[in-house]
Amino acid sequence: MTAQTVAAPARARRGFNLEKWGWLFMRGSGVVLVVLIFGHLFINLMVGEGIHALDFAFIAGKFATPFWQWWDVLMLWLALIHGANGMRTIVNDYVTNNTARKALTWALGLAAALLIILGTLVVFTFDPCLGVTETSTLWEQCQTLGK
């Protein structure tokens, strides 16, 4: 066999490689999500009165501080993107029809984007005094807040 008949090795594609970055994101986001989720569970279930303290006022108190707002939003964003990317990988592996694969991938992306937007709005616009009446258990607290 001569050197001319041996095929040259394929060159690596240059440019942005979505699959490589998706793979790296899954590993990194998985590690960060473990920390965020276990921190979330520890604070909500172990600290203070534990699970007995979980009520509307507890959540309202958490969402009143920017630290916990950003903690929960980061957890939401990473979980949704991580899950959507995993589903995209499954769709790419098992859906053979090109049109169906594209439609499902777009649907996953749109669903994840919509949930991220709505979840972020809920966290940052949460108002525990919205709709509180004089018969509500939160009436006195909302009156002291001036709402």
From TrEMBL:
Q: Which SUPFAM superfamilies match?
A: Fumarate reductase respiratory complex transmembrane subunits
**Originating species:** Microbacterium foliorum
Q: Which InterPro entries match?
A: SQR/QFR_C/D, SuccDH_FuR_B_TM-su
Q: What is its main location?
A: membrane
Question: Where is the protein found, in the record's own terms?
Answer: Membrane
UniProt keywords (A-Z) are: Heme, Iron, Membrane, Metal-binding, Transmembrane, Transmembrane helix
* Residues that span the membrane, as ranges: 21-47, 67-91, 103-126
Q: Which Pfam families match?
A: Sdh_cyt
The Gene Ontology terms for molecular function here are:
metal ion binding
The protein here is known as Succinate dehydrogenase/Fumarate reductase transmembrane subunit
User: Under the cellular component aspect of Gene Ontology, which terms does the record hold?
Assistant: membrane
